[in-house]
Specification:
Three copies of one chain form a homotrimer. With about 160 residues, the first copy, chain A, is an alpha+beta fold. Chain A has three helices and five strands. Chain A has a single domain, classed as 60s Ribosomal Protein L30, Chain: A, CATH 3.30.1330.40. Chain A is about 30% helix and about 25% strand. Chains in contact: A-B, A-C, B-C. At the A-B interface, strand 1, strand 2 and strand 5 of A face strand 3, helix 3 and strand 4 of B.
């Protein structure tokens, strides 16, 4: 349980499963495992109790880039929480592959990479430079569900 | 031909290949098969004759969430039509893996998941909870080609 | 070195590695190789010296569709440059699989496919219709990093 120990060392706490916003129905799994391939659904930032974490709104307007960096860190922890529930042990993740970072952006916000660094920094600090390395895009969306400022989907690999 | 029988049972009709809008040139396949991996290009909603299906415009303005849910259902049928033409038999799809749902959104529309449920509901009703399960994101785009309200790309697996 | 010869024949020059805009930190690789799978991070258009290439801004406003087509061609060359540096030899790419084309769009710009054709045309002219074929989406983003007009991520396969 090396990754768990690393999380504890860094003081990272993984949130509870997403507490669905009122009226929402999400007929898909947060993590889809198929052989060694693991597809991670789009996650938002969560509070420790599993509810969505604010601030809500658009980066470049209601949400500052610094706040959005923190939101992206929370998305990383939410995804690690989903992976742990699905896989049992986070050590099973042998390689991060693709990270797609989506920022709820005003039309003139252009610092998407600095926001998604919050996600990459968590993953690299936990998994290290080899297993944690990932191809990445960081781009501006017109809007995101429930007005979350950041949503991230990803693909990782596990040992057969 | 279990999937075909299921489609008939549900009354689902797969549309003809996309009738390209005037002036458009699309130099790529709707489905890219490589070994067991099948990549599905971004599809919009189609009418049975293959032309793009309205309503057109932005969800949150000209297009209601309920209308967009129906559009997402039509996208599912369009994708199943492309898969059938490429694979010959829809039973060859053994697992849905990743679904990326894009909604042509106003900046303040935030119910993207409810829209893309139209797609997930069709896939789950046809393929069932095991093969049909998929990781998913549902997000708001600034604009989509030809003003379609919904576009979806996906990856599935087939038997070798 | 068939692909290199083809590039020379076509007069295509691959740019130097991206010269990072001032203040930017990008803690991820441009290309993530894992076994036979190769994930390509989101790339923008680059000048031969590696700096980002204009015009900058939104397609449908400051940037014309024709200019954006040229930007998409430059993205293809930037990606080929990254692949060459990572793989050593561009002949190792045996199949293009997925191309995700993102256009910095005004809310009413709807010709995204015509823009991303600039990318597809380069890849098909270099790799041919078989290895170069790719599933594709071309969609409108609210904003992109550093105001680039086009960003593209992709997945390709290499020989084991």
């Amino acid at each position: 349980m090396k990754i768990e120990a690393r999380l504890e060392e860094l003081g990272f706490v993984l949130p509870a499963p997403l507490a669905l916003p009122a009226g929402a129905r999400l007929p898909f799994p947060w993590v889809r495992v198929h052989g060694k391939r693991v597809f991670i659904s789009g996650h938002g930032p969560q509070q420790p109790d599993g509810s969505l974490a604010g601030p809500f709104g658009k980066v470049g307007a209601e949400v500052s880039p610094e706040q959005a960096y923190e939101s992206a860190r929370l998305v990383a922890l939410a995804i690690l929480g989903s992976l742990k529930r699905e896989l049992g042990d986070l050590d099973r993740v042998t390689a991060w592959l693709r990270v797609f970072g989506m920022i709820n952006s005003t039309p003139d916000f252009t610092m998407q990479p600095a926001v998604i660094n919050g996600f990459s920094d968590v993953i690299l600090s936990v998994y290290g430079e080899t297993a944690g390395a990932h191809a990445r895009s960081a781009v501006g969306m017109a809007s995101l569900p429930f007005s979350i400022p950041v949503e991230i989907e990803a693909e990782v690999e596990i040992d057969g």
